[in-house]
Amino acid sequence: MSTLFLLRHGAILQQEPRRFIGQTDHPLTEAGRRQAALWSEVLSDVPFAAAVSSDLCRCRETAAIVLGGRDLAVRPEPRLREIALGAFEGLTVDEVRQRYPGAYERRGCDIAGFCPQGGESFAAVQSRAVAVLTELQPLCGNVLVVAHGGVNRTILCHALGIDLSRLFRLGQDYCRLNLLDLGPDCWRVDGLNLAPIAPWRFPGP
């Protein structure tokens, strides 16, 4: 059985009004680096058998900080990238409504299946992300996975048997941790959107 430490990347710069980011490759802010450093302290006694992250820099940097000082390479995995938002990338909600009338509303009515022009659906994200975790399932021990808010929510929906239409009911704040046991017959969620606040104990050895 693998115990999955599924972490969202640290904070990145957000503009006001907020814009769709998707796969745009933003780096961590200093606040994001500090968030990752807290997890480096909290997880210092946890032995990791493997580490995988999205290949976008905000995830790779988060993983590198969390594992700082360890002799463990992080495998970059494109299938753990955030959802591709195509024509929506970089736009505000108002700009999407102006340029693509009705598209934002259609997305809201079908959050699982809607594809922006040149982008992908959350159903497609779930398919590729769950495939990565299924490949990790035979590993024994702890596995660090650093990905994105949308990706993590699709994974948690799969593990909990929740329809993707409800994915935004699951909190996934910057640099928060989820704990999953990937058993041979089912995936169990042991922790959701956890903060690195002491005193804190992980289940198991």
Give a structural overview:
There is one protein chain. This protein starts with a strand and ends in an 11-residue tail after the last strand. A six-stranded mixed beta sheet has the order 3-2-4-1-5-6, with helices on both faces. The mean pLDDT is 93. The protein has 205 residues and is α/β, with parallel strands linked by helices. Helices cover 31% and strands 19% of the residues. It contains six helices and six strands.
The gist of it:
This protein has 205 residues and is an alpha/beta fold.
Question: Main traits of this protein?
Answer:
205 residues; alpha/beta; 6 strands; 31% helix; globular
Helix and strand layout, with pairings?
Layout: E1 2-8, H1 30-42, E2 48-54, H2 57-66, E3 75-77, H3 93-99, H4 103-109, H5 122-136, E4 141-147, H6 149-160, E5 177-182, E6 187-194
Parallel strand pairs: 1-4, 2-3, 2-4
Antiparallel strand pairs: 1-5, 5-6
Termini gap: 13 Å
Give the quaternary arrangement of the chains: single chain
What is the strand content? Answer: 15-25%
The DSSP helix count reads 6
Compute the average pLDDT: 93
Overall body shape: globular
Order of helices and strands: EHEHEHHHEHEE
Main β-sheet description: 6 strands, mixed
Instruction: Strand order, main sheet: write it out.
Output: 3-2-4-1-5-6
Going by helix content, strand content and strand pairing, the class is alpha/beta
Segments where pLDDT lies below 50 for 5+ residues? none
Helix content: 25-40%
Number of beta-strand segments = 6
Nearest-angstrom radius of gyration?
A: 17 Å
